[in-house]
Amino acid sequence: MTNVVFTFRNREIGADTYRRNTFRCLRTLICKGNREFTKVWTRSSNKAWQYESGRILSDNYKVCHFGYGRDNIPRQMYKLPKTDTGKTEDALIYRCFHDNFTEFENRPCLVTLQSARKGESICFYDLDTGQLLKDIFLSQLVKFKYLSWIDPNRRFVVKSVSSSPERSIRFQRITGNLMTSSIVMAVFDAFPLTFVGMFEVDKRVFGPGIISASLSHGMLFVMYGKGIIRFFSFEYINEHYKLYDHDLDSPRMCSNGIVLEGLPMNIKITECPPVLFEVQCLHHDVKIGGHPWHCIFSPMGQRGVFQVASLKDKLKAQNGTLVDDTVDLEQDWCQFHPDNSGRILYMATASGSIRVLEIKELSETSGKYEIVENQVLDHRPPKQERLMMTSSGRTVKRSQSQDEISYETDVIIHNIDYEDDLDLTWTSATQLRPEPSNMVCFYDNQSNALLRKIRLDMRESCDIDYENNTCFDLDTIVHFVKPTIGKFICNLYRLSGDLNQGPAEKISSTSGTSADTCRSDRNRQDVRRSRRERR
Description:
Blueprint: H1 2-10, H2 16-22, H3 24-31, E1 36-45, E2 50-52, E3 55-58, E4 63-66, E5 75-79, E6 87-94, E7 109-115, E8 120-126, E9 132-139, E10 144-151, E11 155-160, H4 165-175, E12 181-189, E13 194-202, H5 203-206, E14 210-216, E15 219-224, E16 228-233, H6 234-241, E17 252-253, E18 259-260, E19 277-280, E20 286-289, E21 294-297, E22 305-310, E23 316-323, E24 333-336, E25 344-348, E26 353-361, E27 369-378, E28 387-389, E29 395-397, H7 402-407, E30 411-419, E31 424-431, E32 437-444, E33 450-456, E34 467-473, E35 476-484, E36 487-496, H8 515-534
Antiparallel strand pairs: 1-36, 2-3, 3-4, 4-5, 6-7, 7-8, 8-9, 10-11, 11-12, 12-13, 14-15, 15-16, 16-19, 17-18, 20-21, 21-22, 22-23, 24-25, 25-26, 26-27, 28-29, 30-31, 31-32, 32-33, 34-35, 35-36
């Protein structure tokens, strides 16, 4: 079984249709076969764990576990040496699917943002050996803190924190220019590795009241006070305000003839670019997606209320206000489906269910849209009647108070994501009643039908106060738990099983097969097998 999965992994070439057909057999084993997910590895650490591209990273990205060793336990690929000069601020993994290029450019890399006394650097490490492949010094004048993808595996950005007065004075003394920016960003193309440009979000250009800014999907998001967000095109900024190109291997000269280390500020925005879209929302939280483009946001002062509006004219869709009247301590959330189908996922924590919604046009000429419910992914266990015995011996239903109805939660949903190779939508949740347990549910991505429900063997993580996070990748489930401050637990589950076992547990949308029934089926098969052996 392990060799088959490992062969499947090696055949990845980046073409979605090819990979979808290749993993169809693995999807059958997970959802309909006689295989179970078994815990094969558990570790604890005083630092947070990360999981990306099949690799488990620990100790602030310094230790990497990957692959299949003995008993399906992942092997330690490398351990980066510890340095006293700085630390890893942020990191991401670059996966390359190109062929017939140089050895370095065709390697998957761990890209880290390293801080030191003189400034920050971007370091590229080989994912298999931990060897340092390239080191790019950014700047000794700007304090960079964050590293993220603009477009996954194609373009990434390094973002700074707000400039301190000391750095502003130092910047002006060396360069002769006044630094009045809130955020500085440096943009790179991942393949081939190219420096696109560095620019500053200047308050004199973009206006006062800037709180933060970010780059994603080719757009610059600038956040202001009172929940205002403005969207700008980065391609427009790059074309109109870029002064010159800079090669990563060439030195740069300052205006007074001093050779400076690091990268230049080669994009100078002199006037405010055209605003593509502006919205005022709660916590500066806006999600963009759908077909055609729509956005999801919560109006100011309305926690737990979500509105779906067209990105073109800000016109709210019919039935576009999503709200759950049930009071609950956990916060509801709403997002676009991660499979890029344009569907909407709305989860009300009090009900323990996820509503799958679609955006549909009212008529071909109206240009107006409505929100239609497609399916409900219900995680709640079957309700049990609340009975009590009276003094006379009669059994009656016990009434519930309003507080019990409002604050009673049977299940807490932690994650919902899409596995593109298997074409499965999966969720992870903690079920509190009738028996505490952690579970992972697999749904068909087209029909939203529940295919299988898996209970993870870790009851100590079922506390409602614990932080839980789950990752699912083909035959692997990784479960992270934070029970207390400074303690992080990682549990690894692999798809395994005996070919002589009975069929897997079949889950319907209403009730599941009990463990006693499955156990009796296996016992009957063992009896039949022993009879055949006697004959």
